[in-house]
Amino acid sequence: MKPFTRTLAAMALAVGLASGAQAQDRLSFKAIGQPLATGLIQKNKEQPFFEQFAAKTGLPIDVDYKPIDTLGIKDTEQLRVMKAGLFDFVSLRVSQNSRDEPMLLGLDLVGASPDYATGAKVSKAWFDTVDQRLQQQFQVKLLAVWPFGPQILFCKKPISKLADIKGMKVRVYDQNLAKFIELVGGTPVPVAFADTHQSLSLGVVDCAVTGPSSANSAGWPEVTTHQLPLGFQMALNGYAITLKAWNRLKPDQQAKMSAAFDTLSKDIWAYSEELFQDALNCNAGKDPCTTGKKFKLTQVAVSPADLELVRGAVSKTSLPVWAEVCDKSNPGCSQKWTAAVGPVLGLK
C-alpha cells in the first residue's frame, strides 16, 4: 500500500471510530406529550421543542415525542407509567395525576391563582416541595411548571352569574374543582377533556370548565352558548424526567437541560397569556382574533361578587378539602403548603 493510500485509510478509520464514539454518546429518550386536543400550546411550543430537542438544548439527545392521546395511555396514569420506566420525559398533567400524588394539586388549588402573576408566584413557592416528593415517590424529577391559563366556565344554557349553575351538571377534571362546583350548587361530573365536546352535545353535562383557547381548538363553542371568563384554576402542568434518565447526564448536561426547560416554560407563560385574551375574543366573535376560529358565544360579565367567591374558595373550600387528602398520604403536607405558599396569598 502506498504511503498516501495508507494515510487515507488511517484517516477513514479514525473518522469511522470517531463517528462510532459520537453515535454511542448520543442518547435517545421517549416523551409523553400533552393531548393533541388541547390545542396551540401543545402544537406551537411543546411539540417543536421536543422534536428539535438537540438544537434547543445543545445536548446530544434525540427525543421520540408522542402526544398522550395517540398512545392509548390515560392522562391519569402518567406518573405510574414514568415510574415503570416506559418513558423518560412527561408533559405532566397536574390535576389529572393528583390522585396518585395529592401534593401536585397544591400547585393549583381553586381560587389560589386568579391571574397569571399570582399563578407564577404560587408555582415557584411550591415547586421544590413537589419536586422532592416526586423524586421520592416516583423517581421522577420536576423540571418546569407552566399554565394553560385561567380555566373558565362554558355553558349550553343561559347564565348571567356563577350562581346560575345551581342544579346544572358541570364537567370537572379534579376533586378540588368538584368540591367548589358543589359549593356553588352545581353537580360535578368528571369527564376527560377529549370526551367533553360529545358530553356537552348529548346533554351529559350542561356546562364545562377549561381554558378559552383549548375550548376553541376542541370546538366547544359549537355546543355551548355562554362563556364566563372567571378563572377557577390556572391549569398548571409540568415537565418532568425520570431520575434514571437524568442520572445518565453529566452535571454540565443537567445544567443545560434545566436551563432549556426554564426557557421553554417562560415562553409558554407569555404565550398562554396572549392566547387567553385572543381566544376569549374568538369565542365571542370579536376582534382581534388571530389564533382561533370565530364563534358567537355570549360573554358573561364577571361580577365582583363572583370574583370574591372564587378567591375566598382557598380558605373556605379548596385548601381544607385538599389538606385532608394530602395530609392523609403525606403527614404535614398542608403545613408545608401554608408555610411556603400562604405568604404569597396573604394567608395565615
From TrEMBL:
It comes from the Bacteria. InterPro entries: DctP_fam, TRAP_DctP_sf. Pfam families: DctP. Residues 1-23 form the signal peptide. Keywords: Signal. This is TRAP transporter substrate-binding protein. It comes from Hydrogenophaga defluvii.
